[in-house]
Amino acid sequence: MQDLTIEELYEEFEDLPDWDERCDYLIDLGFSLPELPAESKTEENRVHGCQSNVWLVADIKKSNPPTVEFLANSDAVIVNGLIAVIAALYSRKTPQEIISINAEEAFKKLGLERHLSPQRRNGLYSMVQRVRELAVQAEAQS
Amino acid sequence: MIPLDIEAVRGDFPILQKPLPKGLPLVYLDSGASAQKPQCVIDKEREVYENYYANAYRGVYRFGAIVDEELEGAREKVRQFIRAEHSDEIVFTSGCTMSLNLVASGWGKRNLKAGDEILINEMEHHANFVPWQQLAAQTGATCRFLPLTDDGRLEMARIGEVLSDKTKIVAVTGMSNMLGTLNPIDELAKKAHDAGAVIVVDGAQSVPHEHTDVVASGIDFLAFSGHKLYGPSGVGVLYGKRELLEQTAPILFGGHMIDRVYKDHSTWASSPAKFEAGTIQIAQAIALGAAIDYMGTLGMDKVQEHERNVLEYAYNRLQEIPGMRIYGPGVEHRGAITSFTIDGAHPEDLAQLLDRKGVFVRHGHHCTMPLHDLLGVSATVRASFGVYNSRDDVDALMDAIQFACQRLRLT
């Protein structure tokens, strides 16, 4: 997805003391998120959130061990920034690694805990759930 | 008419005196979702807990008697506020949603059968939409839809196509929570009655902003919530004509609503007790009385005039923004609500960026998905105004929108 790692993000966010700066940074991330091709934005790929659409496509690389690659897009810019954060968390990881990642913890560490909860209904939480499900499936198939 | 003293009104709401982090003033534009509370309402609720709290309609001891008296006082205030004839026509519920569900289940299931029709429309809030959909599914009745005009009003000229002697219920909102449309309730009530139907009005948005006279308007059932009327959360009202409430079955059983319980059957108390099972919202209902007193002190005429003034200013200013689309009718047919989209800006981004400037607006489908489907948008931003909003708030909204558009690289 992007080459940004979660460790780099932790460092970056340390220099962003409050939400205003973090939000601007997320907007920048959002604008630079790779575009999902229009044909991938199908109902089947839509992650059900309430207030903005999120589409997610995952690709299981049959390496050894397999890794999961995924690409996601929202129609909202700030959510796209948050997707970039999730991508940094999960991309190019093995199913085992993905299952052991605690996304809520990471979001808390970044000061974005408000944005990842079942109640936020922005599709992100569902997206994390789906990534984990895909990882479990990939694990089962390997 | 002397205009509303907006500074004095703002002074009545403690939350408006507290700056947000970074010293930003609060610009609260979400009264359509829930209104802030004046000090007198907060004080009244506190007074109940600090001075005479007890359960209602049970204790003969001193506090029980005071609570009963206060509750009945609040009920009487509600009665006067909506100009109902009898206080037993005023039922305290948990909110507008419960009130509407009570009518659909309690009256609807008893009175509707296969082949009957319910007249609704696409601007209704889900709370005045889904219960009728469910009622239709359970009884074999059908929901018919009164068409909307291009500018989001009920197309009254076509009512003959959908209203007939099959219609048993006409359910309509007094004011759309998304478009702001003010509906012709009196005319609809008359047409409903001529067809032999009852009219159920969702007053959640209209009751806090304009005079309500259930008798003069010919309203059979009126539902509204306390929290949108500057009262506490957790309490709402169902008004129903006496004879209709007699025909309405309770939907919650136990506690205060019973008359006599036997091993094999039970009988119910009469209204309003019949519909007030368990322990009701004691402090909240009492404090709702204080909210109504407060509105009475301001004067609904002045409130309406003031909000109209703010709305007109907002409606005109918002149009200055490139790519702005305001949904719904012109100001002459709407209450203090503006829902809009800006080309190229997602409502969720807008709402989050406005929040950074201390401007609180709602975004999403506002519990009106069929309406958004009709309009062909998945979400909108809604700025709704209350008695404490002023033109300054509109200016702050404009500045915040400029900021948001710049951040979203639209300017």
Explain this structure.
The complex is a heterodimer of chains A (142) and B (411). Chain A has helices at 6-14, 19-31, 77-90, 95-100, 103-109, 124-141; strands at 46-47, 54-61, 67-74. Chain A has 142 residues and is an alpha+beta fold. Chain A has one domain (6-140): Alpha-Beta Complex (Sufe protein. Chain: A). Chain A has a three-stranded antiparallel beta sheet with strand order 1-2-3. The radius of gyration of chain A is 14 Å and the shape is globular. Chain A starts with 5 loop residues before the first helix and ends with a helix. Chain B has two domains: 6-30 and 299-408, Aspartate Aminotransferase, domain 1 (Alpha-Beta Complex); 42-297, Type I PLP-dependent aspartate aminotransferase-like (Major domain) (Aspartate Aminotransferase, domain 2, 3-Layer(aba) Sandwich), CATH 3.40.640.10. In chain B, 39% of the residues lie in helices and 15% in strands. Chain B has helices at 6-11, 39-52, 62-82, 96-111, 130-139, 159-162, 185-194, 214-217, 242-246, 282-298, 300-318, 347-356, 369-375, 391-407, and strands at residues 27-28, 90-93, 117-120, 142-145, 167-173, 198-202, 221-225, 236-240, 258-261, 266-268, 324-327, 337-342, 359-360, 362-364, 380-384. In chain B, the strands form four sheets. In chain B, strands 2-8-7-6-5-3-4 form a seven-stranded mixed beta sheet, sandwiched between helices. A four-stranded antiparallel beta sheet of chain B has the order 11-12-15-14, with helices on one face. Chain B has a two-stranded parallel sheet with strand order 1-13. In chain B, helix 2 (39-52) runs antiparallel to helix 10. The two termini of chain B are 43 Å apart. Chain A binds chain B through residues 19-20, 23-24, 27, 31, 50-53, 75-79, 122, and chain B through 346-349, 352-353, 356, 363-364, 378-379, 407-409. Chain B: Residues 27-397 form the Aminotransferase class V domain. Chain B: InterPro entries: Aminotrans_V_dom, Aminotrans_V_PyrdxlP_BS, Cys_dSase_SufS, PyrdxlP-dep_Trfase, PyrdxlP-dep_Trfase_major, PyrdxlP-dep_Trfase_small. Chain B: Keywords: Pyridoxal phosphate, Transferase. Chain B: GO terms for molecular function: cysteine desulfurase activity; pyridoxal phosphate binding. Chain B: Catalyzes the removal of elemental sulfur and selenium atoms from L-cysteine, L-cystine, L-selenocysteine, and L-selenocystine to produce L-alanine.
